[in-house]
Amino acid sequence: MTSEQNDPGRLQRGLRARHLNMIAIGGAIGTGLFVASGATISQAGPGGALLAYALIGAMVYFLMQSLGEMATYSPVVGSFGEYGTRYVSPSFGFAMGWNYWFNWAITVAAELVAAALVMAYWFPNTPSIVWSALFLAILFIINAISARTFGEGEFWFASIKVVTVLVFLVLGTLMIVGIMGQSPGTSNWTTGEAPFVNGGWGILSVFMVAGFSFQGTEMVGIAAGEAEDPDRTIPRAIRAVFWRILIFYIAAIAVIGFLIPYTDPSLLNPDGDIALSPFTLVFDRAGVAAAAAVMNAVILTSVLSAGTSGLYASTRMLYGLAKSGQAPRVFGTTTRRGIPMAALLATTFVGAASFLTSLIGDGGAYTWLVNASGLAGFITWVGIAWSHFKFRRAYVAQGNDPADLPFRASFFPIGPMLALFMTLVVIIGQNTEALLGQTNFTALASSYIGLPLFLALWLGHKLITRAPAVKALEADLTRRSDAD
């Protein structure tokens, strides 16, 4: 173990390559795949769903390449918030950091609500607040021990999801080829309007859902600040994670498209009933005993995984903001084990308070909080692409050769610019009905509330500090990390 890992009072590099891989995989594979994937096929048909996920996958590939280049060069916990400050402007970095912290702090609250709903499947008479309090305590303890404890916890949580997907793919393939029951052949790809249903609008609607499904992959950037040997582990994680996630999603949707027709009403599943999950339906047809109960248990691990990762990511972002002078200094302190305890406690409190709003009145305040955080992940992706573009310009302007970078992003500058454009399309298309005047102002505001909040942070910081944009020749290209 290196001396920097033994030093107290700072972050410690306790995350290994396998931890980084599973942190990103765990962030991206969850209820979006296990439950919502059926609705995407119902809306766009199997071909439309596959195309939408492939396009989003290409966008995420470019974003991960951009993040990998910056995170390997400067593996700091503040990650894209810090990069925004150093390469774009202090105000942009400030807004990026607080936007991301808010996003995952609210997501922790959403996962507490989801955990209580999952447990109601087995214990319908137990008050939901009991389960939510218990799971919040578990999430806190996992994060409070050490970075490696978090990494191990996320590794095993994510492993359960990965194994579930792999078993699903194997059983589904056996059913498709007729080894387990009668093969449906390609009939579900040609029935009705299949393979493309509702034309371009169907693909666009799934495009939005697919974007949400892939959110969480950027956590590799946050974890980079505590990764062992970041020059080696971060590029490995960046290269491996994207392809694994894309294969899981594309293959799973293809299997569902073969086995369940898009006209099957169970695919819509507006209430998120686990018994109507396409995974449950396929497992049940394959003869898996208690398929719904098994998938409910998997969903629970997904919820805990997302909650643990969310608490970790938001805590580290708050720590990074404090270290850069953009949050109170107390949040930049750590325990002897390298845990930013003040930031962890503050984030846990905000998550708990946000959860309590779901129990007050009709839960309207909680709904607005969740909607406000909905765009935060996409805004983060915009920031990653733009920060990378500015980083590379500064790197070259200051006389450096991109060939010397420890990890070099593919397809620059087309990659980040294409990712930036596609992410903006996702942001604008959040509520196409509202944009076309087919719904009321409240629905419109609810869909886009996260955007004015981000702009308020950005412009507010700009007005107060008068901080100028960063010029290419003046950008801070010092290689450093929080553990050094």
Q: What's the number of extended β-strand segments? A: 0
Radius of gyration: 22 Å
Helix fraction bin = 55-70%
Total of helices:
20
The H/E string reads: HHHHHHHHHHHHHHHHHHHH
* CATH fold title: Amino acid/polyamine transporter I
Overall form? globular
Mean of all residue-level pLDDT scores = 87
Structural class: mainly alpha
CATH superfamily: Amino acid/polyamine transporter I
What is the CATH architecture annotation? Up-down Bundle
Give the uncertain stretches in residue-range form.
Answer: 1-8
The N- to C-terminal Cα distance equals 14 Å
| CATH class category label | Mainly Alpha
Largest sheet: none
Number of domains: 1
GO molecular function, one term: amino acid transmembrane transporter activity
Organism: Trueperella pecoris
Subcellular location: Membrane
Membrane topology: Multi-pass membrane protein
